[in-house]
Amino acid sequence: MLGFMPYWRDDSVKISVVICTRDREETIGQAVESVANCEYPVFDIHIMDQSTRTGTRECVEKLAAKFRAKVAIIYHHLDKAGLSRASNAGARASDGQVIAYTDDDVIVPADWLSNVARAFAADSKAGLLYGQVLVPDELKPRLKDGVIVPSLTWEKSERLLKGSVRFKIWGMGANMAIARVLFEDVGGFDEALGGGGPLRSSQDYDFAYRTYLRGYAILLEPTVMVDHYGTRTAEQWPDTMVNYGIGDGAFYSKHIRCGDMRAFQLFCGAYALARAREIKHSLKIGKYHRGQYSLNMIVGFRKAMPFGIDRRFRLFVETEKGKIVVTQSNTVTATKRQL
Protein backbone atom coordinates (compact mmCIF):
# COMPACT_ATOMS: atom_id res chain seq x y z
CA MET A 1 0.00 0.00 0.00
CA LEU A 2 1.40 3.38 -0.98
CA GLY A 3 2.17 5.82 1.79
CA PHE A 4 3.31 8.93 -0.02
CA MET A 5 5.01 11.73 1.86
CA PRO A 6 2.57 14.39 3.06
CA TYR A 7 3.40 17.98 2.24
CA TRP A 8 5.95 19.43 4.60
CA ARG A 9 8.19 22.47 4.65
CA ASP A 10 11.66 21.73 3.35
CA ASP A 11 13.26 22.73 6.68
CA SER A 12 10.97 20.83 9.05
CA VAL A 13 11.45 17.14 8.20
CA LYS A 14 14.00 15.15 10.18
CA ILE A 15 16.67 13.48 8.05
CA SER A 16 18.69 10.56 9.38
CA VAL A 17 22.04 10.16 7.64
CA VAL A 18 23.39 6.61 7.44
CA ILE A 19 27.06 5.89 6.65
CA CYS A 20 28.07 2.24 6.35
CA THR A 21 31.77 1.56 6.84
CA ARG A 22 34.36 -1.17 7.34
CA ASP A 23 38.01 -0.61 8.33
CA ARG A 24 38.19 2.90 6.87
CA GLU A 25 39.46 4.85 9.85
CA GLU A 26 41.63 6.93 7.52
CA THR A 27 38.63 8.57 5.80
CA ILE A 28 35.55 7.98 7.95
CA GLY A 29 36.37 11.06 10.02
CA GLN A 30 36.34 13.49 7.09
CA ALA A 31 33.12 11.96 5.78
CA VAL A 32 31.29 12.25 9.12
CA GLU A 33 32.61 15.74 9.79
CA SER A 34 31.41 17.00 6.40
CA VAL A 35 27.89 15.73 7.18
CA ALA A 36 27.99 17.19 10.68
CA ASN A 37 28.80 20.59 9.16
CA CYS A 38 25.64 20.56 7.03
CA GLU A 39 23.48 23.67 7.43
CA TYR A 40 20.19 21.95 8.17
CA PRO A 41 18.16 22.21 11.38
CA VAL A 42 16.88 18.68 12.10
CA PHE A 43 19.11 15.67 11.43
CA ASP A 44 21.20 12.98 13.05
CA ILE A 45 24.01 10.71 11.84
CA HIS A 46 24.25 6.94 12.25
CA ILE A 47 27.55 5.14 11.62
CA MET A 48 27.03 1.45 10.83
CA ASP A 49 30.47 -0.01 11.47
CA GLN A 50 31.52 -3.50 10.41
CA SER A 51 35.20 -2.98 11.15
CA THR A 52 37.59 -5.55 12.51
CA ARG A 53 39.67 -2.80 14.15
CA THR A 54 38.84 -0.15 16.77
CA GLY A 55 40.01 2.93 14.87
CA THR A 56 36.61 3.79 13.42
CA ARG A 57 34.88 3.65 16.79
CA GLU A 58 37.51 5.90 18.35
CA CYS A 59 37.29 8.43 15.51
CA VAL A 60 33.48 8.55 15.58
CA GLU A 61 33.35 8.92 19.36
CA LYS A 62 35.67 11.94 19.18
CA LEU A 63 33.48 13.55 16.52
CA ALA A 64 30.34 12.79 18.52
CA ALA A 65 31.82 14.73 21.43
CA LYS A 66 32.98 17.58 19.19
CA PHE A 67 29.55 18.08 17.58
CA ARG A 68 27.40 17.16 20.59
CA ALA A 69 25.79 20.61 20.76
CA LYS A 70 24.89 20.60 17.04
CA VAL A 71 23.96 17.07 15.97
CA ALA A 72 23.72 13.56 17.43
CA ILE A 73 26.33 11.20 15.95
CA ILE A 74 25.44 7.63 16.92
CA TYR A 75 27.88 4.74 16.55
CA HIS A 76 26.64 1.18 15.90
CA HIS A 77 28.84 -1.89 15.56
CA LEU A 78 27.60 -4.82 13.45
CA ASP A 79 29.07 -8.27 13.92
CA LYS A 80 28.26 -9.48 10.40
CA ALA A 81 29.43 -7.62 7.29
CA GLY A 82 27.45 -6.76 4.16
CA LEU A 83 26.47 -3.40 2.68
CA SER A 84 22.75 -4.16 2.31
CA ARG A 85 22.63 -5.59 5.81
CA ALA A 86 24.25 -2.43 7.20
CA SER A 87 21.95 -0.16 5.18
CA ASN A 88 18.89 -1.94 6.52
CA ALA A 89 20.24 -1.82 10.06
CA GLY A 90 20.80 1.92 9.70
CA ALA A 91 17.21 2.47 8.63
CA ARG A 92 15.94 0.44 11.57
CA ALA A 93 18.17 2.24 14.07
CA SER A 94 17.15 5.73 12.93
CA ASP A 95 13.84 7.61 12.98
CA GLY A 96 14.13 10.34 10.33
CA GLN A 97 11.28 10.74 7.85
CA VAL A 98 13.98 10.69 5.17
CA ILE A 99 17.04 8.42 5.31
CA ALA A 100 20.04 9.86 3.45
CA TYR A 101 22.86 7.48 2.55
CA THR A 102 26.43 8.36 1.72
CA ASP A 103 29.76 6.52 1.84
CA ASP A 104 32.80 6.59 4.08
CA ASP A 105 34.94 7.94 1.21
CA VAL A 106 32.64 10.87 0.34
CA ILE A 107 32.65 14.54 1.30
CA VAL A 108 29.30 16.35 1.25
CA PRO A 109 28.80 20.14 0.91
CA ALA A 110 27.07 22.22 3.59
CA ASP A 111 23.85 22.43 1.55
CA TRP A 112 23.58 18.67 0.90
CA LEU A 113 20.73 17.96 3.31
CA SER A 114 18.89 21.19 2.48
CA ASN A 115 18.87 20.25 -1.19
CA VAL A 116 17.65 16.73 -0.37
CA ALA A 117 14.81 18.12 1.76
CA ARG A 118 13.86 20.68 -0.89
CA ALA A 119 13.53 18.00 -3.58
CA PHE A 120 11.30 15.78 -1.41
CA ALA A 121 9.15 18.72 -0.31
CA ALA A 122 8.41 19.60 -3.94
CA ASP A 123 7.06 16.13 -4.86
CA SER A 124 4.52 14.29 -2.72
CA LYS A 125 5.11 11.03 -4.64
CA ALA A 126 8.89 11.10 -4.20
CA GLY A 127 10.23 7.93 -2.64
CA LEU A 128 13.85 7.76 -3.75
CA LEU A 129 16.37 10.41 -4.74
CA TYR A 130 19.75 10.08 -6.44
CA GLY A 131 22.21 12.98 -6.63
CA GLN A 132 25.42 13.54 -8.54
CA VAL A 133 28.69 11.91 -7.46
CA LEU A 134 31.60 14.09 -8.56
CA VAL A 135 35.35 13.66 -8.96
CA PRO A 136 37.02 16.15 -6.58
CA ASP A 137 39.20 18.76 -8.28
CA GLU A 138 42.29 17.55 -6.44
CA LEU A 139 41.88 14.02 -7.86
CA LYS A 140 41.31 15.04 -11.48
CA PRO A 141 45.04 15.20 -12.37
CA ARG A 142 45.37 11.54 -11.29
CA LEU A 143 42.86 10.44 -13.93
CA LYS A 144 45.60 10.99 -16.53
CA ASP A 145 47.67 8.33 -14.76
CA GLY A 146 44.94 5.72 -15.11
CA VAL A 147 43.39 6.15 -11.66
CA ILE A 148 39.63 5.51 -11.77
CA VAL A 149 37.22 7.52 -9.60
CA PRO A 150 33.67 6.18 -9.97
CA SER A 151 31.36 9.13 -10.58
CA LEU A 152 28.02 10.03 -12.11
CA THR A 153 27.01 13.44 -13.44
CA TRP A 154 24.12 14.92 -15.40
CA GLU A 155 22.60 18.35 -16.00
CA LYS A 156 18.80 18.24 -15.81
CA SER A 157 16.41 16.97 -13.16
CA GLU A 158 14.46 13.84 -14.08
CA ARG A 159 11.52 12.03 -12.53
CA LEU A 160 10.97 8.32 -13.09
CA LEU A 161 7.39 7.26 -12.37
CA LYS A 162 5.64 4.10 -13.48
CA GLY A 163 3.05 4.85 -16.14
CA SER A 164 4.69 8.08 -17.27
CA VAL A 165 8.29 7.24 -18.24
CA ARG A 166 10.28 4.05 -18.75
CA PHE A 167 12.47 2.80 -15.97
CA LYS A 168 16.22 3.17 -16.38
CA ILE A 169 19.11 2.19 -14.18
CA TRP A 170 20.72 5.35 -12.87
CA GLY A 171 22.29 6.56 -9.66
CA MET A 172 24.94 5.64 -7.10
CA GLY A 173 24.42 4.59 -3.51
CA ALA A 174 27.07 7.11 -2.43
CA ASN A 175 24.46 9.87 -2.80
CA MET A 176 20.98 8.54 -2.20
CA ALA A 177 17.98 9.44 -0.02
CA ILE A 178 14.87 7.41 0.74
CA ALA A 179 11.49 8.34 2.25
CA ARG A 180 10.91 6.10 5.25
CA VAL A 181 7.40 5.23 4.07
CA LEU A 182 8.95 3.83 0.88
CA PHE A 183 11.60 1.87 2.77
CA GLU A 184 8.94 0.15 4.80
CA ASP A 185 6.70 -0.43 1.78
CA VAL A 186 9.34 -2.19 -0.34
CA GLY A 187 10.92 -4.17 2.50
CA GLY A 188 14.37 -2.59 2.51
CA PHE A 189 17.48 -3.60 0.59
CA ASP A 190 17.99 -7.16 -0.63
CA GLU A 191 20.70 -8.60 1.65
CA ALA A 192 21.83 -11.18 -0.90
CA LEU A 193 22.87 -8.29 -3.15
CA GLY A 194 25.44 -5.58 -2.48
CA GLY A 195 29.08 -5.43 -1.42
CA GLY A 196 29.99 -8.23 0.97
CA GLY A 197 26.90 -10.25 0.00
CA PRO A 198 26.93 -13.47 -2.04
CA LEU A 199 25.67 -11.68 -5.17
CA ARG A 200 28.23 -8.86 -4.88
CA SER A 201 26.51 -5.62 -6.03
CA SER A 202 23.40 -3.94 -7.53
CA GLN A 203 21.47 -3.57 -4.27
CA ASP A 204 20.68 0.07 -5.09
CA TYR A 205 19.56 -0.73 -8.66
CA ASP A 206 17.29 -3.43 -7.28
CA PHE A 207 15.88 -1.07 -4.67
CA ALA A 208 15.21 1.55 -7.35
CA TYR A 209 13.41 -0.96 -9.56
CA ARG A 210 11.18 -2.10 -6.71
CA THR A 211 10.49 1.57 -5.93
CA TYR A 212 9.38 2.11 -9.51
CA LEU A 213 7.13 -0.96 -9.47
CA ARG A 214 5.44 0.27 -6.26
CA GLY A 215 4.45 3.55 -7.93
CA TYR A 216 6.76 5.96 -6.10
CA ALA A 217 8.68 8.62 -8.01
CA ILE A 218 12.45 8.34 -8.35
CA LEU A 219 14.07 11.78 -8.48
CA LEU A 220 17.35 12.23 -10.35
CA GLU A 221 18.37 15.56 -8.89
CA PRO A 222 21.66 17.17 -10.05
CA THR A 223 21.53 19.93 -7.40
CA VAL A 224 22.27 17.28 -4.75
CA MET A 225 26.03 16.76 -5.10
CA VAL A 226 28.86 15.02 -3.24
CA ASP A 227 32.60 14.54 -3.91
CA HIS A 228 33.89 10.97 -4.15
CA TYR A 229 37.35 10.18 -2.75
CA GLY A 230 37.25 6.46 -3.48
CA THR A 231 39.74 5.46 -6.19
CA ARG A 232 40.62 2.31 -8.07
CA THR A 233 43.69 1.48 -10.09
CA ALA A 234 43.55 0.00 -13.57
CA GLU A 235 44.59 -3.31 -11.98
CA GLN A 236 41.70 -3.20 -9.47
CA TRP A 237 39.02 -2.24 -12.00
CA PRO A 238 38.55 -5.69 -13.67
CA ASP A 239 37.60 -7.24 -10.32
CA THR A 240 35.11 -4.42 -9.79
CA MET A 241 33.53 -5.13 -13.18
CA VAL A 242 33.28 -8.82 -12.28
CA ASN A 243 31.30 -7.90 -9.15
CA TYR A 244 29.12 -5.43 -11.05
CA GLY A 245 28.34 -8.06 -13.68
CA ILE A 246 27.45 -10.72 -11.10
CA GLY A 247 25.22 -8.33 -9.16
CA ASP A 248 23.44 -7.02 -12.25
CA GLY A 249 22.82 -10.51 -13.61
CA ALA A 250 21.39 -11.62 -10.25
CA PHE A 251 19.21 -8.50 -10.02
CA TYR A 252 17.67 -9.11 -13.44
CA SER A 253 17.22 -12.83 -12.83
CA LYS A 254 15.18 -12.30 -9.67
CA HIS A 255 12.61 -10.13 -11.40
CA ILE A 256 12.54 -12.32 -14.50
CA ARG A 257 11.75 -15.30 -12.25
CA CYS A 258 8.78 -13.27 -10.97
CA GLY A 259 7.43 -13.22 -14.52
CA ASP A 260 8.46 -9.61 -15.18
CA MET A 261 8.83 -9.05 -18.95
CA ARG A 262 10.12 -5.51 -18.41
CA ALA A 263 13.05 -6.97 -16.45
CA PHE A 264 13.69 -9.46 -19.27
CA GLN A 265 13.80 -6.63 -21.81
CA LEU A 266 16.12 -4.61 -19.58
CA PHE A 267 18.43 -7.61 -19.20
CA CYS A 268 18.57 -8.26 -22.94
CA GLY A 269 19.26 -4.61 -23.68
CA ALA A 270 21.98 -4.29 -21.04
CA TYR A 271 23.67 -7.51 -22.14
CA ALA A 272 23.60 -6.58 -25.84
CA LEU A 273 25.00 -3.11 -25.13
CA ALA A 274 27.79 -4.52 -22.96
CA ARG A 275 28.78 -7.11 -25.56
CA ALA A 276 28.78 -4.51 -28.33
CA ARG A 277 31.09 -2.27 -26.31
CA GLU A 278 33.42 -5.16 -25.49
CA ILE A 279 33.62 -6.27 -29.13
CA LYS A 280 34.30 -2.69 -30.22
CA HIS A 281 37.07 -2.44 -27.64
CA SER A 282 38.64 -5.73 -28.76
CA LEU A 283 38.69 -4.50 -32.37
CA LYS A 284 40.22 -1.21 -31.31
CA ILE A 285 43.11 -2.80 -29.44
CA GLY A 286 43.63 -5.40 -32.16
CA LYS A 287 42.95 -8.52 -30.13
CA TYR A 288 39.99 -10.34 -28.66
CA HIS A 289 39.19 -9.34 -25.12
CA ARG A 290 36.93 -11.63 -23.14
CA GLY A 291 34.44 -9.18 -21.72
CA GLN A 292 34.30 -9.51 -17.95
CA TYR A 293 31.08 -7.57 -17.38
CA SER A 294 28.81 -9.35 -19.88
CA LEU A 295 30.27 -12.76 -19.05
CA ASN A 296 29.62 -12.20 -15.37
CA MET A 297 26.06 -11.07 -15.97
CA ILE A 298 25.46 -14.68 -17.00
CA VAL A 299 27.45 -15.92 -13.99
CA GLY A 300 25.31 -13.76 -11.69
CA PHE A 301 22.12 -14.97 -13.34
CA ARG A 302 23.19 -18.53 -12.58
CA LYS A 303 24.44 -17.81 -9.03
CA ALA A 304 21.06 -16.35 -8.11
CA MET A 305 19.09 -19.46 -9.05
CA PRO A 306 19.59 -21.41 -5.77
CA PHE A 307 17.96 -18.60 -3.78
CA GLY A 308 14.25 -18.47 -3.16
CA ILE A 309 12.22 -15.30 -3.70
CA ASP A 310 9.78 -13.50 -1.42
CA ARG A 311 7.42 -12.47 -4.20
CA ARG A 312 5.58 -9.89 -2.12
CA PHE A 313 8.69 -7.73 -1.71
CA ARG A 314 10.77 -9.37 -4.47
CA LEU A 315 13.61 -10.15 -2.09
CA PHE A 316 15.95 -13.13 -2.25
CA VAL A 317 15.50 -15.57 0.61
CA GLU A 318 17.82 -18.28 1.84
CA THR A 319 17.35 -21.91 0.89
CA GLU A 320 19.36 -25.04 1.61
CA LYS A 321 21.60 -24.28 -1.37
CA GLY A 322 21.38 -20.49 -1.40
CA LYS A 323 22.84 -18.85 1.72
CA ILE A 324 23.32 -15.15 2.45
CA VAL A 325 26.96 -15.42 3.48
CA VAL A 326 29.65 -12.74 3.69
CA THR A 327 31.91 -12.45 0.64
CA GLN A 328 34.66 -10.08 -0.43
CA SER A 329 33.47 -6.57 -1.30
CA ASN A 330 34.78 -4.32 -4.08
CA THR A 331 38.37 -3.17 -3.65
CA VAL A 332 38.49 0.61 -3.22
CA THR A 333 41.36 2.84 -2.14
CA ALA A 334 40.01 5.69 -0.04
CA THR A 335 41.91 8.98 -0.44
CA LYS A 336 42.18 11.54 2.32
CA ARG A 337 41.14 15.06 1.35
CA GLN A 338 43.92 17.61 1.17
CA LEU A 339 42.96 20.61 3.32
List the helices and strands and how they pair.
Layout: E1 15-21, H1 28-36, E2 43-49, H2 55-66, E3 72-77, H3 83-93, E4 98-103, E5 106-107, H4 112-121, E6 126-134, E7 158-160, E8 175-179, H5 180-186, H6 203-214, E9 217-228, E10 230-231, H7 237-257, H8 261-285, H9 292-303, E11 308-310, E12 315-317, E13 333-334
Parallel strand pairs: 1-2, 1-4, 2-3, 6-9
Antiparallel strand pairs: 4-8, 5-9, 6-8, 7-9, 10-13, 11-12
Summary, kept brief:
With 339 residues, the protein is of the alpha/beta class. The chain has helices at 28-36, 55-66, 83-93, 112-121, 180-186, 203-214, 237-257, 261-285, 292-303, and strands at residues 15-21, 43-49, 72-77, 98-103, 106-107, 126-134, 158-160, 175-179, 217-228, 230-231, 308-310, 315-317, 333-334.
Description of the molecule:
The protein has helices at residues 28-36, 55-66, 83-93, 112-121, 180-186, 203-214, 237-257, 261-285, 292-303, and strands spanning 15-21, 43-49, 72-77, 98-103, 106-107, 126-134, 158-160, 175-179, 217-228, 230-231, 308-310, 315-317, 333-334. The mean pLDDT is 93. The termini are far apart. The protein is built from nine helices and 13 strands. It has 339 residues and is of the alpha/beta class. Strands 1, 2, 3, 4, 5, 6, 7, 8 and 9 form a nine-stranded mixed sheet that branches. A two-stranded antiparallel ribbon has the order 10-13. Strands 11-12 form a two-stranded antiparallel sheet. Helix 1 packs parallel to helix 2. It has two domains: 15-232, Spore Coat Polysaccharide Biosynthesis Protein SpsA, Chain A, CATH 3.90.550; 237-317, no CATH class.
